[in-house]
């Protein structure tokens, strides 16, 4: 029976470790997307509109700025999705942690019960031995007194 609890604790530990890894990867994804967004913003800020030149160049730069703006918005949407995923992973980690701690507590309780039962069995054996010695010694004395 104890093996069942040990297997349960091992399974819960694996689930907890997997949840930690998932959360770490979600955090890494959020950081990566934020860095990508910052890079896009810096590129967008570095594009300066010309003060003189042809209208075609201005239109091309405006189109490039618009494309950068759309890329930044798409990146922000990805960041929000990654943050939602991160929140889900945090909740999964919390649940896995609770399940793991419960499994450890159940195993510890069961081990405690086994130890208590062993102590009772040993105490009963010692009581039985003491009782046998007592009656053997006292019965022997009484028989000698009677004769």
From TrEMBL:
**An annotated GO BP:** protein transport
Identify one Pfam family in the record.
FliJ
Q: InterPro entries, from UniProt?
A: Flag_assembly_chemotaxis_eff, Flagell_FliJ
One GO term describing the cellular component:
bacterial-type flagellum
This protein's membrane topology, according to the annotation, is: Peripheral membrane protein
> Could you tell me which Gene3D superfamilies the record lists for this protein?
1.10.287.1700
Coiled-coil residues: 2-132
Q: Where in the cell is it found?
A: Cell membrane
Task: Name the keywords, alphabetized.
Answer: Bacterial flagellum biogenesis, Bacterial flagellum protein export, Cell membrane, Chemotaxis, Coiled coil, Membrane, Protein transport, Transport
Family, as annotated: Belongs to the FliJ family.
Entry protein name: Flagellar FliJ protein
């Amino acid at each position: 029976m104890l093996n069942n609890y040990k297997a349960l604790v091992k399974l819960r530990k694996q689930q907890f470790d997997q949840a930690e890894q998932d959360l770490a990867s979600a955090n890494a994804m959020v950081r990566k997307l934020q860095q990508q967004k910052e890079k896009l913003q810096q590129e967008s800020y570095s594009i300066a509109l010309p003060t003189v030149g042809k209208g075609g160049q201005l239109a091309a730069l405006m189109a490039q700025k618009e494309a950068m703006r759309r890329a930044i918005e798409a990146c922000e949407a990805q960041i929000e999705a990654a943050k939602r995923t991160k929140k889900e992973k945090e909740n999964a980690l919390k649940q896995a942690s609770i399940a793991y701690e419960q499994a450890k507590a159940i195993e510890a309780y069961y081990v405690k019960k086994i130890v208590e039962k062993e102590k009772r069995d040993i105490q009963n054996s010692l009581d039985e031995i003491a009782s046998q010695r007592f009656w053997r010694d006292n019965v022997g004395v009484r028989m000698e007194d009677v004769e």
